[in-house]
Design a protein that fits this description.
By secondary structure, this protein is α+β, with helices and mostly antiparallel strands. It contains 4 helices and 4 strands; from the N terminus they run H-E-E-E-H-E-H-H. It has a 4-stranded mixed sheet with strand order 1-2-3-4, with helices on both faces. The termini are far apart.
């Protein structure tokens, strides 16, 4: 098992080359994101995992079979891998990242073109979602700033009126706005 690599595998490189040829720019194995995704496209807010069918237990796939020896170990190992994948996907989604999982068998010659087309479509969809999310956040921030300005103007008007009516100093008025310490 020491000969098994987790980064820069042949399926990953094949997908990366196809994405690069189509104009997508990405980062590889970003350590700051949960699960250290194989391919990260920040512009599209998307993390791509290229999973080996055997190591991640691709159900219904001819490339995933449980070895005949030490069956209990392998079943537990694959189950832990699946559990870890699910946790990492949840953590990424909670950080507003879209997750795309590509299986090794989907990168074989017959299905490769369809897989790349599917990834492109998901990236386009994710980019639209991310841009809409950013636009909403921007409008929310602008609304919050406008509300803060409005409240500040109202407070200043009230303070000015209090000063004019009761001849109170601004220090006394400011103290009246503060909450008492307990």
């Amino acid at each position: 098992m020491s000969q098994i690599h987790s980064a820069n595998t042949k399926p990953e490189i094949k997908l990366r080359k196809a994405l690069f040829e189509r104009g997508f720019r990405y980062r590889v194995n970003v350590k700051t994101l949960p699960g250290k995704p194989d391919i990260v496209l920040p512009k599209y807010r998307t993390a791509i995992f290229v999973n080996g069918c055997f190591w991640h237990g691709h159900s219904g796939c001819k490339y995933y079979t449980v070895p005949e020896t030490n069956v209990e170990f392998w079943v537990e190992k694959v189950a832990r891998n699946k559990e870890r994948d699910a946790v990492n996907n949840q953590r990424l989604e909670s950080l507003s990242w879209s997750v795309v999982t590509i299986w090794e068998c989907e990168l074989k010659s017959k299905a490769f073109a369809d897989t790349v087309a599917r990834v492109e479509a998901e990236l386009a969809s994710n980019k639209e979602k991310w841009e809409a999310y950013q636009a909403k956040r921007k409008s929310d921030r602008e609304f919050a700033r406008a509300e803060a300005r409005r409240k500040r103007r109202i407070r200043e008007e009230v303070e000015r009126e209090l000063q004019e009516q009761f001849h109170l100093s601004s220090k006394v008025i400011r103290m009246s706005h503060e909450e008492p310490e307990l």
